[in-house]
Amino acid sequence: MKIYGVAILAACYLAGQLAGELLGKWTGVNGNIGGVGFAMLMLIILADWMKKRGYLGAEPEKGILFWNAMYIPVVIAMSATQNVNLALHSGWLAVWAGIISTSSCFLLVPFISRVTRNAEANQQEQH
């Protein structure tokens, strides 16, 4: 049932929020740092792992796909609750966090593309 997909998403969301809160405390920031991002990363990894092992049927996958489509509105709603003004006035930490995360994403695109291309080639050789 689709509800199992939503349950998996909820578990990932709670774990991601916990990770974001812990990262916030560890860095000394009074807030959640990347909780929704951690949750979506966990969801992607867990869903892929479950699908490869045959634990994820079509209906739970539909529940996960539905909420994946809702990712952007959820992020916007959650970021609206963050104290953006404090982040902008707190100095270079926010600037460096943005520069490092954006640069990391740009640098990882070729790597992810290569890994995906190799995985697809391996799958085609097996069939």
List its traits.
127 residues; 6 helices; mainly alpha; single chain
Your description of this structure?
With about 130 residues, this protein is mainly α. It has helices at about 1-25, 35-50, 60-70, 70-80, 85-90, 90-125. Helix 1 crosses helix 2.
How would a crystallographer describe the biggest sheet?
A: none
Order of helices and strands: HHHHHH
Number of strands: 0
Structural class: mainly alpha
Task: Provide mean pLDDT, rounded.
Answer: 79
Can you give me a brief rundown of this structure?
It is built from six helices and no strands. It has 127 residues and is an all-alpha fold.
Write the layout of secondary structure elements.
Blueprint: H1 2-27, H2 35-52, H3 58-69, H4 71-79, H5 84-89, H6 92-126
Helix pairs in contact: 1-2, 1-3
